[in-house]
Write a structure and sequence with these properties.
The chain is globular, with a radius of gyration of 26 Å. The model has no long low-confidence stretch (mean pLDDT 85). The chain contains 30 helices and no strands. It has a domain of 82 residues. It has 628 residues and is an all-alpha fold. It starts with a helix and ends in a 5-residue tail after the last helix.
């Protein structure tokens, strides 16, 4: 009885503590970019400290109530002490970093911060990234004993801790982007949820696509695209939209593996879909030196191609199996689905206006969009935002933090050691040697490294390591920075559906009640565009061009032809089954239309038109023969 009382009391305490922590976190981060700015590293220290608290609060040593809570709270207190040390003694900390010397006290704080980072990453992500980080630290200390190219002059433990505890390591670009950009957009997504604005995505998708052939699967694609572009998390997208769409697809006759794969692929695309994309996109913008608005415009066409290919594959699948849409009585009218959409449309329009027209920083755009969302939700008389839901939104915002903070902080250890030992340059030299034979060979090698890392790491961590080790080599081979970094981001993202460790596919398989490996293999087939598109825009950067000009129009038409041809070649169907020769010709259309040459692309259009409309008209005549 006492245990039950203690457990109940602790849960109540944790709920109030989380509410206080959520409000304080929102106050500090919004204040940084409006009314209460502070030095960058001091702000990063606040962010990391708050992240540690959330990790150890919500990822305890034991899931059940136990004496191990003492250990979790001890770690929380250590995180607070380490963070407050940097925050309150920032001037002394900065001076020591400039002189490359640490007092015994700050050396101890540095060691504690490293250990807390490793433990936080282990709890949230698993063993893979912490092991990689430990290996790089050991390499920094003992690498002078290695022969040949891998050897270096060796560094003392204090020099290693100085690097990790500085803006080259844990307080470097990854945690900086998490603090500056990612949290604010996580908070924005959390407020979309508590204000019920996110439901509008689902209702609109259902109203617009529900009656079409294969309606439930198409609805899953549209809903996941819309919601995923805001949330930026493949697994969160699968869990939120898939809980509704996967059972609906199964009910309409889709195979369980196909239903799970559609949701996994559609949800994964949210990480590459503007306007918000995922956490890694903000890091890309910072590392590559590309304004976030420009990145969104460049990434728009490839992202649309990803979804258009998936949409057409689903459409063909529905024709092949004669799957119809949902009955009209089961669908909300479009007008009803759009009801209350001002509280979604106004903040998103404001976000795009600030990012693309005014070209402000993503942080300011997020703050103003969040403010607009809160105001619009307060004005919604039928579903008004309350103070309780505001606090709930702040709590949801911090509950989204652990994976991002842990991944970014632990990645900072790796990138710090890469910088100190020159290991990143050695990776680059290795890839450049391959690139001297063929750029395509370098791209394939880079793809494999990204996918392998992505199997054990979140997209953010995978991209950071690849951007540090591989991007410089790709750029030296002559690939412009934006295509090179976007190439790595795509494969870091697409690893979420790539077996054997395909987290998005596994999440979808659980909802679909299907074997995870079967769903993963189907997802690879459906997501084929995600594997091909990075090579496309690297070899033909026109696909990253966006402007109100002839080149953009030409490229977008070619993109549509490529997407339809890829789906048809894969499915072997255009209203009716096509021959192997036709499928090969569609592959030829892809190769022709994807070229930068106007003549080759136009030739691809013509061949596609002859193939597609010839079969389409033939199939229609067969279904509706003329009366003679």
């Amino acid at each position: 009885m006492n245990k039950i009382n203690y457990e109940s009391t602790y849960k109540t305490f944790r709920r109030y503590f989380a509410a206080l922590l959520g409000v304080a976190t929102a106050f500090i981060h919004i204040g940084q970019f409006t009314y209460l700015p502070m030095e960058s590293i001091r702000f990063f220290a606040w962010h990391l400290m708050l992240g540690f608290i959330v990790v150890f609060l919500y990822t305890p040593t034991k899931k059940e109530f136990s004496k191990f809570l003492i250990l979790d709270w001890a770690l929380i207190l250590l995180g607070i002490v380490a963070g407050i040390s940097v925050i309150t003694q920032y001037d002394e900390y900065s001076m020591m970093m400039q002189n490359n010397r640490l007092t015994p006290y700050f050396f101890t704080m540095g060691v504690i911060t490293v250990l807390l980072t490793l433990e936080a990453a282990r709890r949230v992500i698993g063993w893979f990234l912490p092991i990689v980080a430990v290996i790089t630290v050991l390499y920094g200390i003992f690498g002078d004993g290695l022969p040949g190219l891998l050897g270096h002059r060796g560094y003392s433990i204090q020099r290693v801790i100085i690097t990790i505890f500085s803006d080259q390591g844990i307080f470097g670009t990854p945690i900086g982007v998490s603090a500056s950009n990612v949290y604010l957009f996580l908070l924005f997504a959390a407020f979309l949820s508590v204000s019920h604005a996110d439901r509008i995505f689902q209702n609109i998708a259902l109203a617009v696509t529900g009656r079409k052939r294969g309606g439930p699967a198409k609805m899953a694609i549209v809903a996941s695209c819309l919601f995923g572009s805001i949330s930026g998390s493949a697994v969160a997208n699968v869990v939120s939209t898939g809980a509704f769409t996967i059972p609906l697809m199964k009910q309409q006759g889709y195979a369980r593996r196909f239903a799970g794969a559609v949701e996994a692929v559609a949800s994964t695309g949210g990480q590459i879909m503007p306007p918000i994309m995922g956490a890694a996109a903000f890091i890309l913008s910072d590392i590559a030196g590309v304004p976030y608005g420009a990145l969104c415009l460049a990434a728009l066409l490839p992202a649309l191609m990803y979804y258009l290919t998936l949409f057409k594959i689903v459409d063909i699948e529905s024709v092949r199996h004669n799957l119809h849409g949902l009955p009209r009585e089961d669908l909300p009218p479009v007008r009803e689905a759009m009801r209350g959409s001002f509280k979604l449309g106004c903040p998103l329009a404001l976000l795009l206006f600030f990012l693309l027209v005014l070209q402000t920083t993503p942080m300011l755009a997020a703050v103003y969009s969040l403010a607009a969302l809160v105001v619009c939700s307060f004005l919604d008389r039928k579903d008004r935002l309350t103070i309780k839901r505001v606090i709930e939104g702040c709590v949801q915002g911090i509950r989204s933090l652990p994976q991002v903070v842990a991944a970014c902080a632990c990645s900072g250890i790796v990138t710090g050691m890469f910088a100190l030992t020159g290991l990143g340059l050695k990776f680059s030299d290795f890839i450049m040697q391959w690139g001297s034979f063929s750029i395509l060979l370098s791209l394939v090698l880079s793809m494999l490294i990204c996918i392998i890392l992505g199997m054990g790491l979140p997209t953010t961590a995978s991209y950071i390591i690849c951007a540090t080790a591989i991007a410089p080599a790709l750029i030296k081979t002559g690939i412009p920075p934006l295509p090179a970094h976007l190439f790595l981001l795509y494969f870091a993202s697409i690893s979420a559906i790539t077996p054997p460790v395909a987290v998005a596919s596994f999440a979808a398989a659980g909802i679909a009640e299907e074997n995870a490996l079967k769903v993963g293999m189907s997802a690879v087939r459906l997501g084929i565009a995600g594997f091909a598109l990075p090579f496309t825009f690297v070899l033909n950067p026109d696909y990253l061009h966006f402007g109100f000009d002839l080149l953009t129009l030409f490229t977008w038409i070619s993109a549509a032809v490529v997407c339809y041809s890829a789906a048809i070649a894969m499915q072997g169907f255009v209203e009716q089954k096509i021959t192997i020769l036709e499928r090969l010709l569609y592959c030829g259309v892809i190769v022709s239309a994807i070229q930068s040459s106007y003549y080759l692309s136009a030739a691809g259009w013509i061949v596609f038109g002859l193939l597609f409309f010839g079969r389409y008209i033939q199939a229609r005549r067969k279904k509706n023969p003329r009366v003679t």
